Amino acid sequence: MQDDSLPVEAMYERLDYYLQNYGSERAIVTVSELDGFVTAIGCSKDLLAPADWFPAIWGTQEDQPKWNEQDEEDEFYGLVMLLHLEAIDGLFNNTLSPVYLEHDDQQGHVTVIIDDWCAGFIRGARLTGINQSGERDFLDDVLASVRLFGTPRGWEKLNAMSDAEVTFWRESLEPSIMRLAQHNHPEIQIAQAGDGSSRIVH
Q: What pLDDT, on a 0 to 100 scale, did the predictor assign at position 111?
């Protein structure tokens, strides 16, 4: 699904450039958050047209960017749609590959950060109504991990957990998202496990 004319790292850099230079305080601010957002759109039972969710990347109608050039708007739209299609492809082929951030503390210790992705997923879930639909017990189960890593209330709970507990919830994140996707799209066959893995943005 990736456009061969643009290396993946360059794609992420361009998306980050637009998000950081055209976004308000209510906008999605990183490509990881954006990937979580478009993944939630793909998990929705209802098929949403880009016009239904694209403005929410920036916040409210008042937050929509004033582009310096039409070419920039066109490029951003194209890159977001590519990211969206890659997320859909990952969900439907059971090769979910979230885009996570990576932090290097200058001492060789690298930490993979999933909070942004989860916050973006929560944003998308709110927009589509995923987390407000019926079957409360099921939703609470499959959204537990993403709520822990993607909301202020969840972060407070994580701070009180042991390393083993945090690892448990981290490892349950992607399988839970796939369960949600299959629940809303039964044609997805999770039992036929793919070889999806996370993508890291340095």
A: 83
